[in-house]
TrEMBL record:
Belongs to the bacterial ribosomal protein bS18 family. It comes from the Eukaryota. This is Small ribosomal subunit protein bS18c. Its main location: plastid. Gene3D superfamilies: Ribosomal protein S18 (4.10.640.10). SUPFAM superfamilies: Ribosomal protein S18 (SSF46911). GO terms for cellular component: mitochondrial small ribosomal subunit; plastid. It comes from Gossypium darwinii. One of its GO terms (molecular function) is small ribosomal subunit rRNA binding. GO terms for biological process: translation.
């Protein structure tokens, strides 16, 4: 089969749409600790946008909210739990 024809063939796998991690009613804010904690790794690092499946705007707002929470000491900079 020619390469140009292979590009238009559909894959056999069914496409499953993933649900967005942030719903329309969720407010991205430094006080919303249940939302913020989902986007931090066990080591306390901010997870990447690819891992989070967020849009660029949402990732920026999450990053700002996490940094504000860290500065106000509602969230630690490091996770010392072992």
């Amino acid at each position: 089969m020619d390469k140009s024809k292979r590009l238009f063939l559909k894959s056999k796998r069914p496409f499953r749409r993933r649900l967005p991690p942030i719903q329309s009613g969720d407010r991205i804010d430094y006080r919303n600790m249940s939302l913020i904690s989902r986007f931090i790794s066990k080591q306390g690092k901010i997870l990447s946008r690819r891992v989070n499946r967020l849009t660029l705007k949402q990732q920026r707002l999450i990053t700002i909210a996490i940094k504000q929470a860290r500065i106000l000491s509602s969230l630690s900079f490091l996770n010392n739990e072992k």
